[in-house]
């Protein structure tokens, strides 16, 4: 069957159409994405304003039309932290439902972490042993740890790259004092959660998902995306520690000229790097591997797992 997954994230609204059936690897067939950066469109009261809501409804309607055009039998639609934490979330969900017919499922942070962990486990397999999975989105940081497909521990923190950039780094390039203040804030938030994972012992394999980690790995020398999904890509803490001060001294325009960095994400790259560096340091991670699968694939796999068995 062809499934559509509509991910209303803090940075983008992304439709991924895949050909999939239970027990098989989902094969991407089509991708349609629009950058809305909802995490940066919240007003002083934490609400998604009229302009942002109009854009969201229009974008979802366009994604649904694309899903229909590509022959998707069903569309799994979900939203993450930007909608979850908006003070007018009920209004947003109601209007999306009324104008597009989509009943958005709002995932909790722990659900995000659990489903992302499932995707990473399926990608790396049982031989990877105890997995520690990190994911930096636009609105939140998810961390999960476990030996099985269901993680033993999950945490979601309000440390997304878009959220932090909008709230802490107004300058271009940012003021060094703002960068230092954000670094302290990030590390204090992560430090509160370290004990939840330390009690399970050392992971056998540490992996990271999300575009933020992919871009950080790329500027640190990892292979280009054009070289394929199956090329191993790693990011070391030592490389990240070298790049953080460089990114802090760059304008958004200069960051956008770095290899693998998109115009739409260049402003958020420094905040994402501070979160990645803090997480790796406080969790004792020297090197991590980039996982091509993430939350969307986790949603698909979870859906396929619950399909009835046919004979």
Task: Give me some keywords for this one.
11 strands, 5-stranded mixed sheet, globular, 311 residues, alpha/beta
Task: Tell me what you see in this structure.
With 311 residues, the protein is of the alpha/beta class. The protein has 12 helices and 11 strands. The strands form 2 sheets. The chain has a 6-stranded mixed β-sheet with strand order 8-7-6-9-11-10, sandwiched between helices. Strands 3-2-1-4-5 form a 5-stranded mixed β-sheet, sandwiched between helices. Helix 8 crosses helix 11 (269-282). The relative contact order is 0.15. The mean pLDDT is 94.
Task: Report a brief summary of the structure.
This protein is an alpha/beta fold and 311 residues long. It has helices at 50-69, 81-84, 89-100, 109-124, 161-168, 176-191, 194-198, 211-219, 237-248, 252-256, 269-282, 295-305, and strands spanning 2-8, 12-19, 27-35, 74-79, 105-106, 131-136, 141-146, 153-157, 205-209, 234-236, 287-290. It has a 6-stranded mixed beta sheet, sandwiched between helices. The protein has a 5-stranded mixed beta sheet with strand order 3-2-1-4-5, with helices on both faces.
* Overall geometric form: globular
Helix content: 40-55%
The quaternary state of the protein chains shown equals single chain
Spatial ordering of strands, largest sheet: 8-7-6-9-11-10
Proportion of residues in β-strands: 15-25%
Find the structural class using helix and strand composition. alpha/beta
Series of H and E elements:
EEEHEHHEHEEEHHHEHEHHHEH
State the helix count. 12
Number of strands: 11
State the distance separating the first and last CA atoms: 16 Å
């Amino acid at each position: 069957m062809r499934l559509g997954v509509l991910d209303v994230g803090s940075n983008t609204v992304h439709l991924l159409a895949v050909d999939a059936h239970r027990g098989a690897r989902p094969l991407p067939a089509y991708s349609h994405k629009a950058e809305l950066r909802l995490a940066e469109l919240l007003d002083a009261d934490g609400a998604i304003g009229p302009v942002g809501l109009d854009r969201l409804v229009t974008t979802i309607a366009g994604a649904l039309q694309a899903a229909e055009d590509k022959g998707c039998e069903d569309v799994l639609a979900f939203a993450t932290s930007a909608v979850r934490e908006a003070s007018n979330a009920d209004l947003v969900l109601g209007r999306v439902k009324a104008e597009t017919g989509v009943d958005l499922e709002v995932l909790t942070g722990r659900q995000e972490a659990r489903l992302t962990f499932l995707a990473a486990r399926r990608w790396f397999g049982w031989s990877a042993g105890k997995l520690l999975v990190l994911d930096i989105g636009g609105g939140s940081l998810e961390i999960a740890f476990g030996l099985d497909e269901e993680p033993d521990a999950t945490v979601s923190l309000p440390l997304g790259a878009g959220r932090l950039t909008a709230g802490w780094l107004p300058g271009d390039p940012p003021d060094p004092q703002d960068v230092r203040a954000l670094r302290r804030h990030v590390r204090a938030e992560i430090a509160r959660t370290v004990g939840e994972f330390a009690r399970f012992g050392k992971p056998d394999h540490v992996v990271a998902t999300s575009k933020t980690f992919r871009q950080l790995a790329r500027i640190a020398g990892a292979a280009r995306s054009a070289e394929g999904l199956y090329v191993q890509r790693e990011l070391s803490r030592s490389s990240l520690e070298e790049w953080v001060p460089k990114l802090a001294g760059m304008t958004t325009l200069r960051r956008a000229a770095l290899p693998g960095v998109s115009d739409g994400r260049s402003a958020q790259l420094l905040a994402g790097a501070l979160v990645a560096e803090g997480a790796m340091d406080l969790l004792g991670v020297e090197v991590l591997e980039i996982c091509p699968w993430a939350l969307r694939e986790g949603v698909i796999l979870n859906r396929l797992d619950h399909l009835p068995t046919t004979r």
